[in-house]
Amino acid sequence: MLLIPISALALAAVISTVALVVVQTEQKHNRRLFLGRFRRFLDRICDALLQRSKQFVHVIVISFMYLGHHFRATLAKAIAPRPRRQKQQRDRLQFEKTDNHLSSMHDHKSDTALSEAQKKKLRNQKLEERL
Any residues with CB less than 8 A from the CB of 33 and at least 6 apart, and which? Predict the structure, then answer.
């Protein structure tokens, strides 16, 4: 019953010892002695994964910063006092009470406007001239 866990522990100890010896001798010689091409391939894959994970973490951090700023701006907008409306706002556009150029133009336009019958007659006359 204890044979399987003990054998697994012994196998793991042997593999770890061999790996430590290989790494130590490689560091002494400054080159890879065991499965050099395959380990370079694994190093490239690990570097690529590390670069992708750094980019992913950067995107997540920027997203949280954006959400934080958006939340802060929404909260500031909700808390900020609203400007009071002025009572004079209604009287601002009532130019009929004053005697200025715009009111005189408006009066002239309404005084000289054609009636519906005159508009229809003029339209028919222009159409006949075209034909």
Answer: 22, 25, 26
C-beta of residue 34 within 8 angstroms of C-beta of residue 22: yes
For 96, residues 6+ apart whose C-beta sits below 8 A from its C-beta are 103, 106
Judge residue 51's burial from the number of C-beta atoms within 10 Å of its C-beta, 0-12 exposed, 13-18 middle, 19 or more buried: exposed
Calculate the dihedral angle through the C-alpha atoms of 13, 19, 21, 25, rounding to the nearest 10 degrees: 180
Angle at 55 between CA 49 and CA 59, to 5 degrees: 140
Complete DSSP assignment for 59-123: HHHHHHHHHHHHHHHHHHHHHSPPPPPPGGGTGGG-GGGS-SHHHHHHHHHHHSPPPHHHHHHHH
- Answer for the pair 22, 33: CB distance below 8 angstroms, yes or no: yes
Q: With a threshold of 0.90, does the pTM exceed it?
A: no
Each residue's pLDDT tens digit, 19-64: 899 889 988 988 887 777 888 898 899 999 999 999 999 999 999 9
